[in-house]
Write a structure and sequence with these properties.
With 276 residues, this protein is mainly α. It is built from eight helices and three strands. The protein has a three-stranded antiparallel β-sheet.
């Protein structure tokens, strides 16, 4: 019924990266940080709503996981709709086959972190809960990567690739403070913020290098899965495993950082059409 001239707020383009040589979506906005924060809050709101619904319903662990998965799935679909309505192709946000796998060491370090956590924590939940967690991690990974490494990254990338990599990672980490509302203690929440920022850094670097969100989505889902089925344990063995995984991530981030560009995008942009 109403038309909004989106071009008054932003213009968009998909420009190739100097190193990865992939077209990656980029939005030029008047207030990039305001827009990035606003979009980053979308998956947080859906997750908070689903979490509240699960708690109020008194659902079992498996039931709560499926409720959270439903909220994440709806949020992910909304993110895909936003991508579809914008001028860049959805594939330019990263929904395509990854390239440059060799430069990313065939993602072996990412897989190694998952195996380290699985070895350290083991499996501590029953079969029905494992199945529910499988659904949950798939929905959450798609949701968070769509918004943070897809939409938020595209907004900040208009400034520079480095701004997008660092900025999207910081937002991803800081917004994990929302776990405090779910009853998490301050200490563990701060650690999770730091870890999430590190994870986001590597995930964003993988996007730039490979031109694809799929490696980060797969890694995100696998990491959450082994963490959940291990009961998010905090015993000494589990913490040692987490520390070892973080060391691998830091090394991987350093390697990927040398292989990803930091230049601003090109000036050529196209106005976004009016949305119905």
């Amino acid at each position: 019924m109403y038309s909004i001239r989106v071009s008054t707020f932003f213009s968009t383009a998909s420009t190739p990266d100097r190193v990865s040589n992939h077209h990656i979506a980029s939005w030029r906005v008047r207030a990039p940080w305001v827009a990035a924060i606003a979009f980053a809050l979308v998956p947080v709101v859906f997750t908070a709503g689903a979490s509240a619904a699960a708690q109020l319903s008194g659902a079992s662990e498996a039931g709560a996981a499926l409720t959270l998965a439903a909220g994440a799935a709806v949020s992910a679909i909304l993110g895909l709709v936003v991508m579809r309505l914008s001028p860049p192709r959805v594939r330019d946000y990263g929904f395509r086959r990854p390239r440059q796998a060799r430069a990313a060491l065939w993602f072996v370090p990412a897989a190694a972190t998952v195996l380290i956590i699985l070895r350290a924590q083991g499996i501590r939940v029953d079969a029905p809960t494992i199945a529910a967690y499988g659904v949950l991690v798939a929905a959450v990974a798609l949701n968070e990567e769509t918004w943070f490494r897809g939409i938020v990254f595209a907004i900040l990338r208009a400034r520079s690739t480095r701004s997008a990599v660092v900025g999207s990672s910081v937002l991803f980490g800081v917004l994990h403070l929302a776990n405090l509302a779910g009853g998490a203690d301050v200490g563990s929440s701060i650690l999770q913020v730091a870890f999430a920022a590190l994870f986001g850094l590597v995930a964003a670097q993988l996007l730039v290098l490979t031109g694809s969100l799929w490696p980060a989505i797969a890694w995100h889902a696998a990491w959450n899965f082994v963490s959940f089925i291990g009961g998010d344990a905090t015993d000494s063995r589990s913490l040692i495993g987490l520390g070892a995984a973080c060391v691998v991530m830091v090394g991987y981030a350093a390697l990927l950082g040398r292989r990803t560009p930091s230049r601003p995008d090109g000036a050529a942009t196209t106005d976004a059409p009016a949305l119905p």
